[in-house]
Amino acid sequence: MKTDSEPGTLEIALVLGAGGARGLSHIAVLEAFDELGLEPARISGCSIGAIIGAAYAAGLSGRELREHVLATFRDRARVIARLLDCRVGKLADLVRGLGNPVLIDGERLLDLFWPEAVPDRFEELTIPFSAIAADYHRHTEVTLHDGPLTPAVAASLAIPGLVRPVALGGRVLIDGGAIDPLPYRDLLASNRIVVAVDVSAPMTEPGEARIPGAMEAIVGASQILTRTLVQRLIEQEPPDILIRAGADRIGGLDFFKAKAILAAAEPIKDEVKRALERALDAQR
Questions:
Q1: pTM for this predicted structure
Q2: Of the listed 25, 44, 47, 222, which one is catalytic?
Q3: Which of 54, 65, 205, 257 has most Cβ atoms within 10 angstroms of its Cβ?
Q4: What are 204-209's contacts with CB under 8 Å, separation 24+?
Q5: How far apart are CA 173 and CA 140, in angstroms?
Q6: What's the CA gap between 154 and 160, in Å, rounded?
Q7: Are 56 and 127 in contact, with CB atoms under 8 Å apart?
Q8: Phi and psi of 47, rounded to 5°?
Q9: What is the C-alpha to C-alpha distance for residues 46 and 153, in angstroms, rounded to an integer?
């Protein structure tokens, strides 16, 4: 339901959704904003959307984020070494029954992969930003918008079984995609244009009855949940502008396909520009 924002003002809110590696497509949307000379009044992000949204809110341009992503994932050996450095456990833990040897510490992951320009606290961001997480015990949505930035975004991307939950503010937080993978509803207002970018994975026809591996199944199940929740949200009350992005047949962990993902997202830029121009004209 739309509420009233500040009287006499018109602002644009940008919402970047969850979707794993498909979420690199968000960068094309940011480039469209930059090319139009528009800056969102606020940004909300979930999971990969929180990672990219926070970096954009820090003042990095879409082009700078594109260059950073391409440079990062061009060096496969370096990325794998960094991921190994972010592991919480060891392979020996699996034999001893002590834990998950591939579990990642999300805060260390962000420290290693985020551009250096991303600050430590929400208050230092250029654009107001919120990260969405889920309270594991209370089964509620948690909107994080002040205090330390890294643990908040780490909580938003904490996919169970892949990234370690984050203890923050007396709560145990996990991936926001478990409860609100496209968090636009609370931003809907009569004097606000809400642009929501959905990068959830649509159903695909399998070429064969292939059984996914353990890691693939964990991420794939998260992708199914994300798409299902997003579909229901949109059916109930759509955002002002809905952008569907993400290359076909891209898995949640296909970050080494960054170049192909960004190339496939190029047509989205014109779609975003046209939608924004129509929405702004309608308000004049």
A1: 0.90
A2: 47
A3: 54
A4: 204/248, 204/249
A5: 10
A6: 12
A7: yes
A8: 60, -120
A9: 8
Active-site choice (44, 130, 135, 175): 175
Residue identified by tokens 């107001």 is: 128
Question: Is 200 tagged catalytic?
Answer: no
Angle at 165 between CA 162 and CA 171, to 5 degrees: 160
Q: List beta partners, residue 142.
A: 133
pLDDT, one tens digit per residue, over 164-205 is 999 999 999 999 999 999 999 999 998 999 999 999 988 776
- Which token pair is 257? 């396909």
Amino acid residing at 280: L
Kindly give, in sequence order, each residue whose CB lies less than 8 Å from that of residue 128, ignoring residues fewer than 6 positions away. Answer: 41, 42, 43, 57, 145
Which of 121-135, 144-158, 214-228 bottoms out in mean pLDDT, i.e. has the lowest? 214-228
Is there a catalytic annotation at residue 75?
A: no
How confident is residue 89, by pLDDT bands cut at 50, 70 and 90?
low
